[in-house]
Design a protein that fits this description.
The chain is mostly beta strands. The protein is built from 4 helices and 11 strands, in the order E-E-E-H-E-E-E-E-E-H-H-E-E-H-E. The chain has one domain (20-138): OB fold (Dihydrolipoamide Acetyltransferase, E2P). The protein has helices at 33-36, 86-91, 94-97, 122-128, and strands at 11-13, 18-23, 26-31, 42-48, 52-54, 59-65, 68-73, 78-83, 106-109, 120-121, 143-145. It has a 7-stranded antiparallel sheet. Strands 7-6-4-11 form a 4-stranded antiparallel sheet, with no helix packed on it. A hairpin with a 4-residue loop joins strand 1 and strand 2.
Length: 148
């Protein structure tokens, strides 16, 4: 993932500030820099029912940042096939410093054709992100902290 430029046509965002980078039949997903701007420390990342198929909008991770919990939702339907190394994300602070690149949370396989309804292009997101609603939800009771 390190060598993929951030300004590209296959990068999309949700109105709840998750991002997805399409890579043919797979995609990387995570949380946007705007959503976590101002945070000083990521305390914990907990994945909810880590692997398997998840529907668009379903929570797949909870992130504890400073004194705030952020629920991260699936931007599209897909099957989680890999999660990023939590130690790498926490110890090297990649989630805060490079959330849309090295701070990816999960790699998913996506059904074809790709359903992009409701996703915002990078330009649309940049122009509208300040007006998008930011909401937090309590952690799901079926979450588990994973340290691959």
């Amino acid at each position: 993932m390190k060598d993929i430029p951030c300004n590209e046509k296959n990068l999309y965002y949700t109105s709840s500030h998750e991002w997805i980078r399409f890579m043919e039949k797979e995609a990387y997903i995570g949380i946007s820099h705007f959503r976590i701007a101002g945070a000083k420390k990521v305390k914990e990342i907990a994945f909810v029912k880590v692997y398997g198929f998840k529907k668009k909008g379903e929570i797949f991770a909870n992130i504890q940042i400073d004194f705030q919990q952020i629920d991260v939702r699936m931007p599209v339907d897909g099957t989680i096939i890999k999660i990023n190394n939590v130690n790498h994300l926490l110890d090297e602070n990649r989630l805060l410093t490079h959330p849309e690149m090295e701070g990816w949370l999960a790699k998913i396989s996506i059904p074809q054709p790709v359903e992009k309804d409701g996703l915002l292009s990078q330009e649309q997101y940049t122009n509208n992100r300040r007006t998008l609603k930011i909401s937090n939800f309590n952690a799901s009771s079926n979450s588990s902290t994973v340290h691959p």
